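Q: Sequence in, structure out?
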Amino acid sequence: MTPLKRKYLSALLSLASLLPGACTGMPDGVTPVRDFEISRYLGTWHEIARLDHSFERGLVAVTADYSLNPDGSVRVVNRGYDPAACRWRQAVGRAIFVEDPRTAHLAVSFFGPFYGGYTVFALAPDYAWATVSGPSHGYLWVLSRSPEMPDDLYRRLTEDARARGFATDGLIRLKTPPPECEQPPGGAARSPVSG
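A: Exactly. Output:
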C-alpha cells in the first residue's frame, strides 16, 4: 500500500469513529432497561442532578422534553437557565434506538452526525423518575417528572449509581426554580426572562 493510500485509509478510519455507534456505548456496570415503552417516557423530565460537563455547565432548572418525530426518532429539547447571563439556553437534538425500541439504549445527536450514548438504566415502574448514563462513567443524570425529589429516593438512586462505578460525589444537585440573575455586566440584577 502506498503512503498516500495509507494516509487516506487512516483518515477514513478516523472519520468512521465519529459515526453513530462510535460513542454510543455504555459504561461497564450499566444495563439498559428492558421492556421500555417510549410512549410512557415522552414528555417533560426535570434534571435533579448531573455530573458536570461543558455543555450544561452553570445551567440550573434544566428540563428535557421528548416527543416523537414523524420518522419514529425522538425529538429532544434540553432547556436550562443560565443565571450568569440571565437567560434560558436551549438545544434541540434527535435520538434513535441503538438496539430495539424496547431497550432503553439510544444514540442522541445535537451536532449533526455526532452521536452520544443515552442509556436509561434505572426507571420507576410508573416512569416517575429515571437514572441515565452517557457513553462513559463521566456522564450521569438523575431525572424526575417533578422538579423536586425526596431525599431518600435521591440517596437510593445515587447509591445505585455509585455501585455501578459512577463518581456520585461529583453530582451537582440542581436548584429549581431558577435563582435571581447574577449581576450582569454594567447593570442591576434582573429577574429570569426567556431568551
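Residues 83 and 131 are 26 Å apart (CA to CA).
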